Write the structure tokens for this entry.
Amino acid sequence: MLSGCTSGAKAPVSHALFQWVEDCPMNTLNQAQRAEAVLFFDEEGSVIKEMLYHEFEALLDAFFALPQFAQQRVQLAYVTIDLQLCIRSCVFFYLDFTSTGAADPNWNIPLREMAERAGRGPDLGAGPIRLACRSQCPISWHQPSLWDPALVSGRNDLIELRECIKRNQLGLARTEAVVDQVKPEQLHMAEEHQWYVQEPSVSAVHVDLAALEQEHQAKMEHLVRQQRLRILALTRKHEEELVQLKRETEQLQTALTEQERMNATLMTRLEQEASQYRLTRNELTQQLRALEKNSEYKIEAFKIQFDAEQQARIESAVADYKEQLAIREVELAYREELDSQLEDEIEQLKVKCARLEAESGSKLLERMAGSGVIFVTYQPGAGHITLSRTDVLQFIESPLAYIAMRCRVTQPHYEQWLSHYKHPVCQRTLPGGKPCNTPLQRVESPRQFIRGESDCCLPHQTTIFLKNQAG
């Protein structure tokens, strides 16, 4: 314990002592004055439930269940909190729930040990915290059970945690930081001839420089850790986008190969037809030249014979076509009658199929759910959604309505946000009637999307605001 300074003297403080306090495990400092809590996140990165650690232990011991999380894998965060409601350590982990909403009985992550052995993280108000997540896991075999917090613009899970703890909905006791005050009797006025600025000694300057250098090094390490976490999150996001881009490129390459094959086939056919056309033209040219060499009589005879042959061929072709037309009319009448019968049978089969589908669809889903099949879909704004048996039928009937319900917005609001998400540009028009199409920052969450603001550039937002004020 460090004693206060006596009157007229300064007590030297050892730099090594402060270094030991900084490097020692965080749980050894005021551990008894820290609270432990567990917070539940939803797919959008918002805290939806809070509980103290002893309540979480009761949940693990099956003293109660949470039916709202049945058959779900939920993202949770374990935090330790000091008396000033500042987060000192944090562990981001998954917890699976059974069909009744009970916690997975095989869950066995040592949260306190993970927090003690975690590496440094960002400063959330009381210095760098201890942070354990998938990309910074102190116990390697527990890495698959951890998740990385989002640190991107529009969603910062660490800031969400800090603000949630500051609201203090858990009712934790809070005290202000105590600052030691100097007693009046310990203050002394120096003589007037001593009122001058004393030049610092070389040793004092050296100590100050060393302290500044150490502080600067600590700040740099803190910034490097923050940037590494952010770079890791961005790298994973870019890797997913790269995989999607490669998949689309492969599909386009396949389509291009198929188109080239079709073009080659068409070119071969075109060359064959051109060759046949040249042969026919050569034959006709030769025949014409032979006719030109004969006399006019022979030419006229050939013309008459040719006309007769052509007329006979035409009459024969017309007769054949009439006969074929009569046959086709009979076949068409028969086919129409057959089509009518088939349409009646199709309608009957549709009714039977609809009845069988209504009777067997729910049973099939019930059998699949009983066999452990989990229905998961990924939708923009909602992320990966685990569907129950009843939710599957509702999702199939109206996907957009179901996703909007899960995002806690209306279906028209979700459709407007989805249009903005796919093409984030200004939707207003310029004075000439052309669309503005100014690129905008994409709103990642439907709940944060505001019609007339999120889909408009800053000049159009100002114009709308002025119109509303004038109105």
